[in-house]
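Service request form, structural biology core

Requester: graduate student, group of Dr. S.
Request type: structure prediction, single chain
Budget code: on file
Notes: please return the result as structure tokens.

Sequence provided:
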Amino acid sequence: MAETVLAIQNLKIWHPSSGTVLVDGVSLELKLGETLAVVGESGSGKSVTALAAMRLLPNALEITDGSVTLGTENIFELTENEMNEVRGRRVAMIFQEPQTSLNPVQTVGEQLAEAISLHRSLPRSEITKSTVDLLAEVGIPQPEVRVDWYPHQLSGGQVQRIMIAIALACDPDVLIADEPTTALDVTIQKQVLELLAKLKRERNLSILFITHDMGVVSAISDRVAVMRNGEIIETAECSNFFADPQHEYSQHLIKSLPNTQDFLWNESSKTLLRVNNLHIWFPIKAGFFQRTVAQTKAVDGVTFQIDEGETLALVGESGCGKTTTGRAILRLCEVTRGQISFGTKLIHDIPERSYLHFRKKIQVIFQDPFSSMNPRMTVGDIIHEGVVTLASEIPPKLRDQHLRRVLDRVGLHMNQLSRYPHEFSGGQRQRIAIARALAVRPKLVICDEPTSALDVSLRAEVLRLLRDFQEEEGIAYLFITHDLSLIPSFAHRVAVMKEGRIVEQGAAKSIMLNAEHPYSRELIAAAPVTSLSSRLAGNA
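Core staff response, request fulfilled:
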């Protein structure tokens, strides 16, 4: 039996001010060379447990019982100076949001060098060589050049690789990864998971992997521990967990994975939106006089249509032009060439004075609902503003009744209208965003990554909610996503986008099972197996 490298015993953590117990008697063992996935919904205590294992808990939280043993040492008995030696050298952590964890005014090389020099006494030349070697090990192209780059010059996937490199700088025994693939598109996610698996093999790393993505769990873990309400409710080998989950909540998590049933709509429906040969180019300026020297072709000849009551999924990697296409439909960016028509009207030909009334027909649900809401307005004012401005056909005396019906539909209550956005959870804020969009009775809703930051059960609830509205009111969706696991259960058709162009489009199940374009097949192959092709094939 492999030795235990990290042991958490009967850990209890609470918030004294509120009296809330966040972690309630958690016990976990991480073996040498093992990947243990800790899964559960947001607020279950996963990240708090991980921070406790690094002794990085906020001052507002208090450990009331338990121990964390690294090797043979209880880290709670170490001095802060001793703990500083432990962090990075014996146990390291990859945080959920790498951009906020890196110093924006330091180069990548400087931050790597700092991590090395804290624990290893090496000549400057060796530290410099080590930084380049680390960048090469985590797959950063041209490491001798990128070592002098700043975090903002790197892509999301590259920034995550930098965080992994910093974590590995002093060759730790244990790596704690807190949601390291959240918001990454499927190909970058696959690359990060493959990198972690490679490093685990080569360095005999032990990895505590915290996630809410069940597909990722199936792809990387040896064992699974399920957390709920601060407690571990089930621990099992990965294969046994998915084949035969024992606890009712574990069964619920697996059932929340997107199913594979076909969602049909009336294919004889009228065309609602038509995008024809859309080009959106952004100028690249240089020189003292800022002359245009080149063009960035964000969208380059995109054509598709959406019928009444249909969901079209627009998929592709980050930077392929998905969101820019959605912004063009909303008239939030200039169109270089091409046409966008809604019904019989060309959107960009509608005069500004008439467009406000037209706006109610096309609404949007943003990726980050919190940043799309005025923090100084109550939720009631946020939703009511849209109704007053855009749904003037609803008489004032019937507006409260209308709002109540919409709120009931999204699982919120009238007594919550006086609260502010920051007082709600992520899932609740997304419901508010849906209520705001649907309260004006639109014909088309552009959903821009609306579930990317939600845990598996919240994601299932949001998708179910959107489907219900579609079935009852005939709403059409342009569903922008990089998460291909959602497609079989939500989209009627799929358009695959790469480098500003649509390379393939067709019926959802047909694309997922029999994609013709190499890039489509690459995206599908990169998605976690639990959610896609294997499940589809089994239900074909």
